[in-house]
Amino acid sequence: MKIISVKASTEYNVYIGSGLIAKTGAMLAKTVSPSCTAFVISDENVFRLYGERVLESLEEAGFRTGTFVFEPGEQSKNISTYGMIVEKMAREKLTRSDVVVALGGGVTGDISGFASSTFLRGIKYVQVPTTLLAAVDSSVGGKTAIDLKAGKNLLGAFWQPCAVFCDTDTFSTLPEAEYLSGCAEIIKYGMLGSRELFESVAAMPVSLQYDAVVAKCVDMKREIVENDEFDRGGRMVLNLGHTVGHAIENRSGYRVPHGMAVAAGMCVITRAAENLSFAEKGTTERLLKVIRGYGLPDGISALACYTGGDLSVFSAESLSESAMNDKKASGSGLTLVVPERAGECALRTIKKEEFIDWLRAGGVK
Question: Which of 153, 173, 193 is the last residue of a domain?
């Protein structure tokens, strides 16, 4: 088992390894008192696979338990589901001595964390990520949120977990699309700050090196979060591909999975960076080779399967309009994460009206 310590406003450990689901209760009891209630939030698919084992582990460790299980998918990450969660937490009479257990992927972690940050003005929570995407990205760092109709993650808070238990065995049950979404985020980490990681996942499938790859991504994120916990500067590099990616998700009605949108968005922004002479020649081709090797979308044209062949929803005009609601937009400017070469990116602030030119330079019509 690998252990990575995150020293943010709340200090906590990220545990990465095999067989941790069955040890959830015993490990949590080392972080919070087992005399409290552990309130498990999960979606139907994940709870069906792991819910009973986690509840049994918690109860064996002495915790009282409660649950809230919701319909899976990004469409559930909204005000309505959030309202039902906090109402259930109130009926369960949870106090600040209790703890929320977010069991699942990024949607579960985001909405559980946001509920925890706001209920009673903040109670403890732990992340138990069961997807590769959540393990390498959203479970660490304290960003919590729900979506609004205007855009993704627009209502949220910074609220660090008190621990993260990442059982890499859970990745074996992932549908192919979920696995690939995680791979997209891992490629993102390689592009933004580790040529070594980028070349490693190009040479060997992520599935053959889970522990090492997850630990590398978490350690990279740890360093970034410790230096800029509240996303005022350097942490923005983690948004590589996300400005375009979030716009893609929004315009598709969230039919395009997050990782697929990020992959396409990363390719768009890298093409644009090279065409506008911000990126080293050949950077786009290096990225595309890895992206295509994993069967991920290499741009907007590869997303037709999610919209019945209709790509008009991803026009430069529509994506630009959605991006103006992104959290990275402020005043008259928009901060882009711009690849300069594989393993190195820079932050560039452009005028909002210039973003459509970047999209077109990236191959968006």
Answer: 173
